Give the backbone structure.
Amino acid sequence: MDFKHEVVELIKTQVDLPEDKIDALIERPKNAKMGDYAFPCFVLAKTLHKNPAEIAKEIAEKLSSDNFASIQAVGPYVNFSINHEKLVSSTLKDVLSEGEHYGDQELGHGNVPIDMSSPNIAKPMSMGHLRSTVIGNSIAKTMQKVGYTPIKINYLGDYGTQFGKLIAAYKHWGNEEDVKKDPIMSLFKYYVKFHEEAEKDPELDDEGRAWFKKLEDGDPEATKLWTWFREVSLKDFNRIYKELGVTFDSYNGEAFFNDKMQPVIDELKEKGLLHESRGAQVVDMGEDENPAIIVKSDGTSIYLTRDLAAAEWRMKEYDFTKMIYVVGNEQAQHFVELKTVLKKMGYDWADEIYHVPFGLITQGGKKLSTRKGNVVFLDQVLKDAVSLAKKQIEEKNPDLADQDQVAHDVGVGAVIFHDLKNDRLDNFDFDLEEVVRFEGDTGPYVQYTNARAQSVLRKAAAMGKEPSKTDFALDDEWAFAVAKDLADFPRIIARSADKFEPSVIAKFSLDLAKKFNKYYANVKILTDDEKIGARLALVKATSIVLTEALRLLGVNAPKEM
């Protein structure tokens, strides 16, 4: 039952405001004792020429509903307190009947390409790649939950000046046997060495640029090395994606769009948008704005050229409803330019391009940098997280079956959850010991809460007791607090989808876990009385919603821990 919708319907009978306006005005009181919903009457004061508190009193006196225990004026607000038993009963009925589909919605439809992860070939995946990967994966799952068809694109960094530098580095210091033994780390060492040496000898940068030009011109040696670097990199990336449980629908990287850039440059010329500035080909962005460079003065393309070609190709290929780029906050200006140039070209669908930015992961307060070799490798972090999880599982539950799988789900899940519980625009410091704790605001805490719920259900089954399918009459404050969160889950999903913000779901799952643990501590769930079936229904519903919330974050929910 949608109690908020009923509040809207009730208020609508008393005020001359459109339904969507009423809906937008309704608040949730910070103090639960004040009620569950509140309608502020300030907006009516001007037209009714009355004090808002007086208006609230008049409206409250005229309203009644069996679904609300009380409707009363509190100052300038009309406050609604939900009938506890009605909310618990209707919510448990909905969750148990819909199961994992509880919260499914039709908020939109159509293809939604999501440009995410996008590591550079020949470099190991670092913690810096974690954010785009797990944020993008969660957004994809949430968009699917609300009716869209996500298309996950790994826009590999497999082209650009850095590959000229890498080829130059390999020619100077490379060894084929070393690359065959340990491809990624060997290539990474060459790349770091190149930058160290280039600081002493700037001519090395010229050499790198020359090799990149050869690559662009189809030089056989440059192309052969580049192809080899790409193959060994992809193999390594897929090993890590498997650990994270992330899959992709496309690996079309930057190189795929090489032959698609010139038509875009020609199109810009035909539309009179391209002109020369300091030897480069640019598009004006407007007064007081730097122009967008399309072709550099040395004749090479840049990211923007390629992204324009990619955007046009994706529209033709996928006929998308929205297109999402999960890329760091520091690239904000790039996406402003991308959308502006596409709009100037006459493509109104550019309005449905969304840059989903995110902050940095730091360690000890310092930014991680691949170029300087100050990097934390993602596969090592995941291994360490699994190891830490296993150690705690061995201490808490040494007889647990399938310990290795559970340790994997908990360790990897902890790293993903820690990333996603933070508002994506926030920077955060990464401390593995904190991340994999079973207590506190962590993924393992939510997983452990779900495992606790499953344990209660197993014990009940051993007693011959099952969750009720019809009688959900619980009215204690602990059950109400849990059910109120369960009832809110569809709204949480919709908000997460609308804001492209997985942290909304992560924070919800922490809140629900805390409320369930309070219920568990204060109520004797397995007491064999007439309400045991209803209590078990609440336990089962909580497990369903916690499992689905974790799934939307890309985190597994073990049934035992």
In short: DSSP finds 21 helices and 13 strands in the chain. The radius of gyration is 28 Å. The longest helix spans residues 220-244.
